[in-house]
Amino acid sequence: MNLKRIGIHAGVALLFLLIAIAYMPEVLQGKILLQHDILQGEAASHQNEVFHRQTGEQPLWADNMFSGMPGYFVYMQTPASIPTTLGRVLFFDMGLNPANFLFWAMLCMYLAACLLGASPAVAVVCALAYAFGSYNIISIEAGHISKVIAIATLPAVVGSVIYAYRQQSRAYRLLALSLLLFFTAIHLYSNHIQISYYGALILLLYFFFELYLQLRAKAWKPFVFTSLLLVATAGLALSTYSTRLLTTYEYSRYSIRGKPELSTTPLAVLEPEKKDSLQAAASQSDGLDMDYAFQWSYGKAESLTLLIPHFMGGGSMSGLDQQSGTYKALVQLGVPPATAAGFVRQLPLYWGEQPFTAGPAYLGAAFALIFLFAFLSSRHPLRWWAMASVLLLLMIAWGKNWLWFNELMFRYFPLFNKFRAVTMTLTLLPLPMGLMIALWWKEWREQQNQAGWQDHNRRMLIYAAGSLGGLTLLLAIAGGLLFNFSAPQDTQLMGYLTQAFGNERQAWAIMEALRQDRQAMMQADAWRSFFFIAVAAGLLWWLIRQPRQQAVWWGLALLCLIDLWAVDKKYLNKEDFRSKYEKERFWQPTEADKQILQDSSYFRVLNLTVSPFNDATTSYWHNSVGGYHGAKLRIYQDLIEGYLSRQQWHIYDMLNTKYVIVKTPEGQTQVQRNDGALGAAWWVERWRWASNADEEFRALKELQPAVEAVLRKEYQTALEGLQPAPVDSSEYIRIVHQEPHRYVYETQSKRERLAVFSEIYYPEGWKATIDGKEAPILRANYVLRALRIPAGKHEVRFEFRPASYEKGQKIDLVASIVWLLAIAGSIFFAVRLLRTTSHKE
Prior knowledge:
The chain has 29 helices and 18 strands. The chain is α+β, with helices and mostly antiparallel strands.
């Protein structure tokens, strides 16, 4: 055992922890980020979490959001999964959030680089570039924590796979398998399938490159054996999350990522005569609509932000200061300085093609040069895999701007159409780039004594620095001649300014000043990147002269950190941190909340003071018809688009929307009671039949939900013999007990009747009983449940106990035990083989 090497690695880990804390020293003061997505997640999960804490029962249905939906992605504990418990300890229970996410990103990338042959100093360069890429920092600021954890741990998975293939020793291959077992399971804790999917694409590309190399070397047998071991290893790690996988698979078929029931978009179903104008071509494939999936696509020119951070202005709401030309133009036009300062702070500096963005995906100019130099200098066959991976990730991020490729992937490549926001791939670019640098460094050490080595590397450095430096210099000097710095949203801004000033000429003057500010920002950052490239080129030139000088690499590490740190601090800094008291105060009930909470009956709330279907804060205190989730039930999304967003109140009535929170003209929050809310359940006098989903959905337009229902013809057998009839005032159906996953009703009727419940229909997991005897749940009014209930007095119960959860828990427990034994066994036999080998030597 090399104690010196262990000491170095431990010292590097400590260095990473110190760097992470230095970037966010506020964590030592107990401060936190009030991140948007975290707050939304807390609001969505609050009621189920409280119920679980009070009763010990796991509620798998979230009735406080979107009128009810499976709670798998809202709040779900999986105690049988040991990696889940371990992941929670590593990423949350150990504290220092969110600095610890940076620490894990650095540590996992460092490990991957070391596995591929990098020295500690080289691995530190790769680790810093990976962790401090601006996209990663922006994701932390936004609260995309599951994505950040997935990004942080992915390098260790990819590095372990490559290490296993490149090792000839069985002992080291076993160690690679133990690492892969551990880090795959920890990576899957994030439950961010999209990042895992893109990581799998990188590994799939590597597999084909490695297969080609091994076939050329006629070494296919070890390759096949290693591949089978790796598949078994990944399968075991996956099986420890069986509960998540099974419930996710089950739910995905009914979510917006599954196949639509309607033949076209909801609006086109309701207004078929406007189908062409609504651009409602039917999409019968499983997954998302292609326009929706590629809504956030990186522009090809915008890709220059990888090298020049504010090439396209930065974030949509980055804003300007009082030194800007726009501020000065406003003041010259007579706008008060204070008003002008406030206005320019909110201006949209971003002029790219995305609807909006929080900031650029900046890799670091110095790091980009190191990668390009390594690629040109290297003769390692896997350099083509690294470059191919970079290009693949970049082409995916281009989305609709590289449509011939992405449409093929969307329509034919498995699972590709399940994800949106394809720009997410940009955060993974430093992964293949860093691994390329690690592979090159190992080759560098082995070849530095060869003839012509220095001349070759000097030439490659000139090519790399000349191309990147020349590009940044060109943009710094002549960038204003190449672009117009106009944004798609500028037309709307121009209209606002014209109206505000009453003078189109003055509005044009302000818009021209804004374009000049965008140009100045781009050119200033081009000069900045040129500087970092020049300094990095100087250090690499010195490295070629002194190839064993590790101090140069530490200088490059510091340079990369300074480069990225300065950009990152514009998007995540001390201004973003708040005291814990502020968070507690955020969740205090408002006067409107308090008024509604006085009503102890069962109902739902519509909050029109926020964007109701893109905001979950209402769900913290109330059962809401709205919410915030990336994978809503498909039928409910149809209802939102076709009826709820168009204020069709009879639909709100059948969802039991008793209270509406609104803003008065004076800006005050007010609670309005909706007396038309139909309650938890009601008898219907009659029903009509629909041949398909389109007919049923269209029938809601004229439906009188208080007295009638619409059902599919497939339920005609279930209602055979049941006759429509007026409801007597003595007949009732009322809810007597309600929990997130359990509802109990008491019914009284003079004859057999059809009852409609204001609960969302979901075909998996729900079981209905009448006096203890199971009864089939029917689907009515496109989204609701219905039951055929005999005459007399009865107790009706609904309970949600999905088999996928119960089955998954059992598999989780067995797989977790095997997972632990496999890790321990791999390490034991690897150490034993190493000792045997050392004794023989």
